[in-house]
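Convert to structure. Protein one:
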Amino acid sequence: MKKVDILIRPGREEDLRALLDGFGVPGITVSHVLGYGEQRGRKEMYRGTELESRLLSKVRFEIVLKDEQVEPLVEMLVKNLSTGNIGDGKIFISDIASVIKIRTGDKEI
């Protein structure tokens, strides 16, 4: 099993959710997070004063999938979410050793 973390800019949540639903992802966890990548934040003007925001708002989707589902999902996401601009997001893939349902104690390996 693999855990897939998808970080995207705010405003793309419904697009991503629709893609994941269409792919048949059984469940998601969504978090609003702060961070920066290549763009290193951004500068804005407020009442004539330049302000630098180092941490940008991002949305993180976490899903767990079978190994064979990961590559087709990644290909679909890159194809449908890429604008070609810095800040489109990142996909992180990690191994999952096991999953245990708290209610029943059932284990998935």
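Protein two, convert as well:
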Amino acid sequence: MVPLFSKSPSVASQSFELKREDHTEKGAFVAIDVIRYNQLEGHLEHWLHPEERDYFHSLKAPSRRRTYLLGRTAAKTALQNLDITCNPPGVHIKTGIFKDPIPCFPMKNPIHVSISHTASMACALAFPAGHPMALDLEDIQLKRARVMKVHCEEDELRLLKQLGIEDDAASSIIWTAKEAVSKALRTGMTCPFALMKLKSIRADTNGSITGFFDNFAQYQFRSWIMDSRALTIVLPKRSELVFPSQAPKLS
């Protein structure tokens, strides 16, 4: 079995708690920097299922190869954090109709994953299947932010500006919140952006942002700005997301 990434500066791996009413469940978050790619590419058999390796070799664009391998590795590291018997090459993370990742391997309790990536990093959540979650990660870049701003409504941007967050970062947060809830709903971005409109946003004392949706009142989102990136995690409205250091780590 491939050991967990535990002390690498280019890999952040941590557990979190999902507290809800009278019970608590565990989840895992993993982020892997692109600088790990060459090492991982040299050991595909340690991480990818045979069918995943075939798919990896079918990809022509180097950027697609990087995001695919980093994303699968992040997801399988997160799965290992929840189920130590998980053997990465024995796990086939299939792709659903709406591009949602579906981990397939023998497990005592069903676990789902959510994967996101940028050009420089991939991250993943592993969480109990009965506790729907999703995440999205974006680099905060001027050109990219201008594209995302087109899909943001003025009152959404105003809510974030009131918290002292300027347009580039605000657009990234709004985009990641909508992308993440579309993943949690398992529709992907086939759902019209207008349906995922943000309703309210507040600043938390620990530096994160918590927000809610107009049409999906059963969900909330938590967002962080870290290392020129916006990270958002969507989870059920009445659940509490608790990281040991109050926030997920990207490095």
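Confidence is low (pLDDT under 50) at residues 1-7. The CA atoms of residues 5 and 216 lie 36 Å apart.
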